[in-house]
Amino acid sequence: MENTRSYNGRTLLLEIVGIIVALLFLVPFYFVIVNSMKNFAEIVANTANLPSSFYLDNYTKVWKIMNYPKAFTNSLLITVFANIGLVIISSMAAYRLVRSPSKFNNLLFAAFVAAMVIPFQSIMIPLVKVADKAGLMDSIPGLVICYFGFGVSLNLFLYHGFIKSIPREIEESATVDGSSPYGVFWRIIFPLLKPMTVTIILLNTLWIWNDYLLPSLVLTSPGHRTIPLSTFSFFGQYTKQWDLALAGLVLGVIPVVLFFLALQRHIIEGITAGSVKG
Amino acid sequence: MKTKKSWIQQWVFVGPALLFFTLIVVIPFLMSIYYSFTEWNGVAAEVKWTGLDNFKAIIFDDKDFHRSFWFTVRFSVAEIIFTNLLGFLLALLLTQHLKTRNVLRTVFFMPNVIGGLLLGFIWQFVFVKGFATLGELTNIGFFQLPWLGDEPTAFWGIVIVSVWQGAGYLMVIYIAGLANVPKELIEAARIDGATRWDMLKSVTIPLIMPSVTVCLFLTISWAFKMFDLNLSLTKGGPFGATESVAMNIYQEAFRNNRYGLGTAKALLFFIIVALITIVQVSITKKREVEV
């Protein structure tokens, strides 16, 4: 609220407070990273110190035990395909629901929105049965389809709000020029949705990449493990071997942290756009 | 012809979304209502209808469920208060003209991009080894507590981690709210001789009520649905003292194979969460003011 004033003693003080709090926030990461580069004896002896040498054996071991490249590929495939599908199905549906507000469509929109209140735990038990009947169990495409179903409510809701703000005239002139409704959507509307699409992809990616419960129910064989699943089973096995467990943890965290640091401005803007409307 | 065309368009545009939504959300939801009135083990073809027995058992006899429910309520209250408080304070701090503003925002937001499961493991190490070491080095009693080892510290351990995780997210939303407070109003209040506290209380907070609505909604739903953090940090221990409702439902269904009872718990859980969020949104919505 002092935005208009120049940098003074009070701002300096606040700046120092901010930096101290930020350092406190980072302490857990410090502990994990530093100790992941020590052997077990050194972790026990000096938990707080920097490692005595740059020791990466933990990482090479864990890389193999976790089958890291496989887990990474699984997570990546699931996240990419779930995103593509969700963007297509929810943008198309939202467009139709905004532009043809029949009684049925309004009711449909209400149902999509209302479903956002349902906690995952309330439907996970029968979902496993449905997924089994539909042949979605223990399959990566099957899990992707589950994400279509769970993500569509929020995605459609966000697109719906955005499309409402797009003036109709643009589409009308295209229709007069002889474009089909599909052409209008893909050539005119979809490109206009880009800011919302970026937000939706970022939000979906953080959610799907980090999700544990749904993949743990759907994917049963070790070859299908995602990063959270493989970190979990790894951690369970090596609970007391902190040297290996911590290296596994760092490997599990790295991809999403890099993703965030590369796109942090968009992610933070996306959260703002998504939450103010949601 | 025209109606047929429009019918085809309807299904091309809406069909896929509706199909997946129905298959993954609607059908399981309806089934969960049905199964909650049955005794079903998840495997048997025969499903025995038992009426309200599951609900009676949960409400009157299920000590574990009561304990997990009470834990979830206490945890939610603490998490909602502290996460919002810290998130709001960080937002106030980072709307000042600090030179390190952007770096600090990134730092505070970071825990949010890592899933709850991995955060739980990170903190498990910090509590078990890190705090113990800090305790030895500094002799501060706080670090020497039996973190995660007994009931009260395990409770506050989970609260600390979830506040640490959630505050940065709320900070972003509160910053967006603060950015929308018109500068003229602040100026006017200052000319009228308002103190900083007056301005915060009478100008800023009423004007950011939309952000408060969203933040309360988010923290309530995070707190009630907490599972990953719970699983990786304490596994519900010691002796079930930190078992959340979400985890209790999971255990009932997939560990004890009592799917009927599990779905009944899940349905009760859904009704409670839905009621609380509806009440919260309608209360805070009323307090929102138009600029």
Automatic annotation (TrEMBL), chain A:
The keyword DNA-binding is annotated on this UniProt entry = no
**GO CC entries:** plasma membrane
* Positions of transmembrane segments: 12-33, 76-95, 107-128, 140-163, 184-209, 244-263
Question: Mind listing the UniProt keywords for this protein, alphabetically?
Answer: Cell membrane, Membrane, Transmembrane, Transmembrane helix, Transport
Identify one Pfam family in the record: BPD_transp_1
Tell me which residues make up the ABC transmembrane type-1 domain.
72-263
The domain of life is Bacteria
Q: How does it sit in the membrane?
A: Multi-pass membrane protein
Instruction: Assign the protein's first listed, main location to one coarse class.
Output: membrane
GO BP terms: namely:
transmembrane transport
Show the PROSITE patterns listed in the entry. ABC_TM1
**CDD domains given in the database record:** TM_PBP2
Q: Which family does it belong to?
A: Belongs to the binding-protein-dependent transport system permease family.
Name used for this protein in its record: Carbohydrate ABC transporter permease
- What is the source species? Paenibacillus aurantius
UniProtKB/TrEMBL annotation, chain B:
Could you confirm whether the keyword Iron appears in this record?
no
Q: Which UniProt keywords apply?
A: Cell membrane, Membrane, Transmembrane, Transmembrane helix, Transport
InterPro entries given in the database record: ABC_transporter_permease (IPR051393), MetI-like (IPR000515), MetI-like_sf (IPR035906)
| Gene Ontology CC | plasma membrane
Which terms does the UniProt entry file under GO BP?
transmembrane transport
Q: Where does the source fall among the domains of life?
A: Bacteria
| Transmembrane portions of the chain | 12-37, 69-94, 106-126, 154-181, 202-224, 266-283
ABC transmembrane type-1 domain: which residues? 69-280
Where is it predominantly found?
A: membrane
Q: What's one Pfam family the UniProt record gives for this protein?
A: BPD_transp_1
- For the keyword Transmembrane helix, the answer is yes
Q: Say which family it is in.
A: Belongs to the binding-protein-dependent transport system permease family.
Q: Could you identify this protein by its name?
A: Sugar ABC transporter permease
Q: Which organism is it from?
A: Paenibacillus aurantius
